Amino acid sequence: MKKILLFVILAGLFCSSSFAADWKSPADAAIQMSPGAISRLESKKDKSAQDIYMLTILYYREYQRVKLKRLFNDHQDKWSDNPAMKLLQGIILMWDHRYSEGRSVLTGVINDYPDFYPAEVTLSHLDYLQKDFDRSYRKALQMIEKQRELSRFHFAVSLMIAAGAKGILVKKNWIKGIPAYFEVKGYLKKAQKQMPDSAETLYAVGSFYLLIPPLVGGDLDKAIVLLEKSRQMTPLNPSVYVRLAQAYRAKGLTAVSRKYITKAMELDSQDEILLDDISGAKVFLDVP
Hints:
Elements: H1 2-21, H2 25-30, H3 35-43, H4 49-62, H5 65-79, H6 83-95, H7 99-112, H8 117-129, H9 133-144, H10 152-169, H11 177-194, H12 199-211, H13 220-233, H14 238-250, H15 254-267, H16 272-279
Helix pairs in contact: 4-5, 4-6, 5-6, 6-7, 6-8, 7-8, 8-9, 8-10, 9-10, 10-11, 10-12, 11-12, 12-13, 13-14, 14-15, 14-16
């Protein structure tokens, strides 16, 4: 009996340390889960840290703010010091636009777990939303260099963040525009190889066609097709409505544009790209 008990304890410790070191496999599994598997995971009563991590990725991808908060509230007492729970908390704070608190949580978990790259990728996303495009770009490049250690999802996200940040950084220096165009396009092509039909990739590539000049491949019609597909897959993403509003506005369809801006405001009145568009600042770029 003692030997069996010792085996169970050692197995538990082994599984725990394996998960602590392996943030790649569960993330890859999460993005391939069927609706039925997701439903079973959601209904599981005694969720492990790995279960929480996988659900965090699923809800993060779908902009499921309510589900993220419920997941955190239901499990924070049991897993308060686990990096998966810290990642969940950091994402919630980021979506709530509480940037300083989110940065503190993510930086703290990275300090405690230096190889916890999902937190690094999320921090790069937070930098982008805070308009620190230089830091976001540099952090994304660091993650891209660690491709073998990243899940397919986190590698693709890093590529898309690098593409977005680089595109904004170069807008004031058109002399560097041509090489930057090829760099951005290269990142997006690699992202498409990783997750070809995902809502994230459709959004990123659609935004690319929307925001670059027609002279170098900009295409409003292509942008609208891709962005509409992304919207259908992630109807809770406020930013996709803003990009579509910009596209329809450029096409002269003012009523449709207003409808999409209204929908974005209903979803999140503090969305960064929404506020950027309404203010007229267009730091996040607009149709050329």
